[in-house]
Write a structure and sequence with these properties.
This protein is an alpha+beta fold. It is about 40% helix and about 25% strand. Helix 2 (about 20-30) packs antiparallel against helix 8. The radius of gyration is 21 Å and the shape is globular.
Length: about 300
């Protein structure tokens, strides 16, 4: 049995977060390769595991996060030995060198001993921030979390209603919204058909739209969840109705869904100040996670750094 198959079986036995689940990695890596690092004890029990995504950049193999996969997770068994993280990072780096990986970049919520192990292995460790509401209140109490600006937007949107969307309709709407703003959508139709369809089929996701009385879609989002959190993904709005309050209203509907399910709400926050400010205005509090990066090929280091400066 391959590591990938063993990791899939592990996910069937353990309640792992959304972005750690094997089906997510399978769907989000559409057309690409993903694999897993596994550590096992003498009896063949998995003591630690982590998936990783293989791509090519500038013709060189790299380990990067799959499209719209904000968080990477590492599983460890309750009885794992104290040095498990050091062993895991060493095994991961050895695997990357054997596969001639030139660039590694992962990000997620990592425990302090794992951060130390990455740092000791020469990884650059940087902080990033998401925004989360730990206890989503009822609709009657929810607006107390919001800024006056968000409450004002909600008052504009009293005549809207929620509709579920098909994957195809969602992608067309998002694509058109980005095009109207002079931007390019950052995921493909095939990615949408894989990930969004699977999430909905597994009852771990909804594609919801804010529509007006004429049935026109003003805003939409992909809402996904696991057993602990709801995730705010792929929000989009028609720029013709930017001031309608539709996006704020739809976000309130998503929060209400999280409340009904008894889940935390993760905005999968942005490091872009304007987006971060919007999430804070909904009552989201900053939560730190970390990005790990290491270049095993000096050429790709120079190329990546040059591109980042452009």
């Amino acid at each position: 049995m391959s590591n990938r198959e063993k990791y899939t079986r592990l996910c069937e036995q353990e309640e792992l977060p959304l972005h750690a689940q094997a089906w997510w990695w399978e769907m989000a890596s559409t057309g690409k390769e993903w694999d897993a690092i596994l550590l096992e004890d003498a009896k063949g029990n998995i003591t630690a595991a982590m998936p990783f995504h293989l791509v090519r950049r500038l013709g060189i193999p790299a380990v990067l996060m799959p499209v719209h996969t904000q968080y990477h997770y590492v599983y460890t068994a309750p009885d794992a030995p104290p040095d498990i993280y050091t062993h895991l990072v060493q095994t991961f780096e050895e695997t990357c060198r054997k596969r001639h990986i030139g660039w590694i970049q992962l990000q997620g919520f990592y425990p302090a001993p794992l951060l130390d192990a990455f740092h000791a292995s020469g990884f650059d460790v940087t902080e990033r921030v998401t925004y989360r509401i730990d206890a989503v209140p009822s609709r009657q109490e929810m607006e107390a979390l919001f800024s006056e600006n968000k409450r004002r937007q909600l008052r504009k949107a009293v005549n809207l209603h929620v509709e579920d969307m098909t994957v195809e309709a969602f992608y067309r709407f998002h694509h058109a919204c980005m095009e109207a703003q002079g931007k390019r959508i950052d995921y493909s139709a095939s990615w949408a058909r894989s990930v969004l369809h699977e999430a909905v089929a597994r009852r771990q996701g909804r594609l919801i739209a804010a529509q007006n009385a004429n049935g026109r879609t003003l805003a939409a989002m992909f809402l996904a969840w696991d057993n602990k959190q709801c995730y705010y993904l792929l929000p989009s709005y028609d720029p013709m109705f930017k001031k309608s309050g539709a996006m704020a209203w739809l976000t309130a509907q998503a929060l209400e869904e999280a409340h009904r399910k008894g889940l935390q709400f993760d905005f999968e926050g942005s490091m872009i100040p304007s987006i971060a400010s919007s999430y804070k205005q909904f009552g989201g509090r900053p939560i730190t996670y970390h990005r790990m990066e290491k270049f095993l090929n000096p050429f790709i280091r120079v190329a990546v750094r040059l591109r980042q400066r452009l």
